[in-house]
Amino acid sequence: MCENAYLTEPLKLISIRKETEIDFTFKVEYNKPLLPGQFLELSIPGVGEAPISVSDFGDGYLDLTIRKVGRVTEQIFEMRPGDVIYARGPYGNGFDCKLYENKDLIVVAGGTGLAPVKNLIKRFVSNKGLLKSFTLIIGFKSPEDILFADEIKQWETSANVCLTVDRATGDWNGRTGLVTKYIEELEIGDPASAEAIVVGPPMMMKFAVLGLMKKNLPKQNIWVSFERKMACGIGKCGHCKIDDTYICLDGPVFNYTKAEMLLD
Amino acid sequence: MGYKLSKTSFDRLLQAMSKRYVPVGPMCAKNAGAFSDTDSIRYGKITSYADLELAQKSYFSPKEFVFPIRETLFRFNGSNREVPEVAARPIAIFARPCDINGFNRLDSVFLENGPEKDFYYARRRKNIKFFMIECLTGFESCFCVTMKANKTADYSVALRFGEDEILAEVKDEEFISLFEEYGEIIDYKPEFKDSDNAKVELPNFEGIDLEAVFNHPLWKEYTQRCIACGRCNTSCVTCSCFSMQDTAYDAAKTLSERRRVWAGCHIDGFTDMAGGHSFRKNNGDRMRFKTMHKIYDFAARFGRNMCVGCGRCDDVCPEYISFSACINKLSEIIKEMKNV
Taking Cα atoms as reference points, which of A189, A76, A232, A20 lies closest to residue B119? Predict the structure, then answer.
């Protein structure tokens, strides 16, 4: 008899950190191997299950940066350190970090799209020598929506960080405008060999990729991560399928040459 | 091995095999149809030849025996997760070749797609044996021959239900002794339907720009006609999508269960994500998604088309949308694209 992949496992909540009014990072005990960009099927008994990307991980823990938007996530916000949440996975292909070594790497992240690439960013920030150059273009709707604000500041020490908000509020004196505006301003030494990762809402990804291609980055050097409704995470439930591709199995990370063929 | 049985001896055989198997087949539920004075043809437990309804196609497919409409995956009882048992008694499904081929498509998704087998499907599936109903004429909306789903070798026993007698080919040794006891040895091999009542021509997508197909005005017609009820999905033997559903038994949620329930790509909410993003809001886009899955992209992944041509989606659509007509229209469009 085969293993029951649906049997979810208890994870103990270590700590909760407030990022914004509606985004919290939940740190849980975790010991299984993980790749950046993978996701878990997170659940609360009696409430439901939802796919959540892993924002960071390390020895004995992982982080889930969650926005309070649905039935399951609302309940997660009621939890306290020491409580138990359930998860199965990890699922998905994740990012192959080796691909970017010794290259100029540009990461374009929009809103909660920063979560699935956070661990990858940290890796390259703390091992600066692995890349030729590292550029981050990170966009949020408003200053109130900024995730990982302290860490973004730290990243500035080893990466070219461009943090922007769609519209300024309060005493914001940083950049404003969409990420595409800053892609236009990019100066890429050798675009043919540079690599780019784009993660965010569908419209943002579409125009960010077009912007990068205008800068002469070849399609095959652009990587995107998809977000879709998923009930199983293991290629059975059908919700995330696009054409012959299952986002949960074949993705969520795709090379753009593949991603551009995926028509919903 | 071939056998001949009278209806009485078939009934005795059915009784004898019921000790070990649950025989199920298409049955007529009188006055149980959606409209007054109409019957509903459904799968159910048969005890005699008279129980079988062979003159009409069943409204639902027999997929429920491996993929129930709603299935409890496990119960959360405090910190325990308890997986319910399923009946250990194997099921003998009396099914036509198209439906047997439908199970083969379900196998692809539940057992072969991705590294994990589906535990719940697998444990029911291993308890299924097929008693194939020879089907030489099919019904008005059938197009199994076009879909290459008119033939199968995946059966324990094949049966021809004649006017007075029943002929059987027994391939599964387990049933030989039963047929030896109740039948009389003759020569019989089942035959398969070789032409369709519904004339369907599959499009040849080779060299075609899929984006042009996706954006073709054809699909707009279905945005106007389809009401997203999902009957085509639920009646389809090969539709296998599901959603998760949690239900708590008490306010404190110390006791709850996780279920999976059928989902369908035509039904509202199929792609909805928390936070408001969704895809294919127009019903025509859903028709396009389903059509391409059934006759194009499933085959790209698994090597054979998903649709088995049973025609149930045509039979059940309250808006009289015909899937076979849609395939034919698409074929014409593809031909035009190639001629330009």
Answer: A232
Supply the pTM of this predicted model: 0.94
User: Which has the closest alpha carbon to B91: B12, B172, B24, B14?
Assistant: B24
Helix (H) or strand (E) holding B285: helix B283-292
User: Which strands, in side-by-side order, build the sheet including A175-176?
Assistant: A175-176, A160-165, A133-140, A104-110, A195-199, A222-225, A253-255
Decide: A135 and A105 in contact? Cβ < 8 Å: yes
**Which residues make beta-bridge pairs with B72?**
B259
Reference A91, options A12, A7, A5; nearest CA is A5
Distance from A18 to chain B by nearest Cα, in Å?
19
Tokens 């085509």 found at: B232
Judge: A237–B263 Cβ closer than 8 Å, yes or no: yes
Strand order in the sheet with B70-77: B80-82, B70-77, B255-262, B242-248
**In terms of Cα–Cα distance, which of B4, B96, B102 is closest to B55?**
B96
Cβ contact B71:B326 at 8 Å: no
**ipTM of this predicted structure:** 0.93
Bridge partner list, B133: B159
Q: Which residues of chain A neighbour B240 with C-beta distances below 8 Å?
A: 236, 238
Q: How many CB pairs under 8 A join A and B?
A: 139
Distance CA B323, CA B156 (A): 32
Confidence of residue B78 (pLDDT cuts 50, 70, 90): confident
User: In chain A, whose CA is at the least distance from the CA of B212?
Assistant: A263
Give dist(CA A108, CA A136) in Å, integer. Answer: 6
Contact A194, A186 (CB under 8 A): no
Give the number of other Cβ atoms within 10 Å of residue B195's Cβ.
Answer: 11
| pLDDT tens profile A120-152 | 999 999 998 999 999 999 999 999 999 999 999
Backbone angles phi and psi of B4, in degrees to 5: -120, 135
In 3-state terms chain B splits into helix, strand, coil percentages (rounded to 5) of: 35, 20, 45
Q: Are B235 and B99 in contact (CB under 8 A)?
A: no
Distance, in Å, from the CA atom of B123 to the CA atom of B71, rounded to the nearest integer, reads 13
B103 neighbors B141 (Cβ within 8 angstroms) = no
Task: Provide φ and ψ at B122, rounded to 5°.
Answer: -60, -40
Q: For residue B332, which phi and psi values (nearest 5 degrees)? A: -60, -45
- Total residues belonging to chain B: 340
Residue A74 CB neighbours (<10 A): 14
Amino acid of residue B30: K
As a whole number of angstroms, the distance between CA B235 and CA A160 comes to 56
Which residues touch A129 (CB under 8 Å, ≥6 apart)? none
**C-beta of residue B319 within 8 angstroms of C-beta of residue B225:** yes
Residues 6+ away with beta carbon under 8 Å from A29: A11, A12, A14, A60, A61
- Tens-digit pLDDT profile for residues B126-162: 999 999 999 999 999 999 999 999 999 999 999 999 9
- The nearest CA of chain A is from the CA of B46 a distance in Å of 29
Chain A interface includes B275 (CB < 8 A) = yes
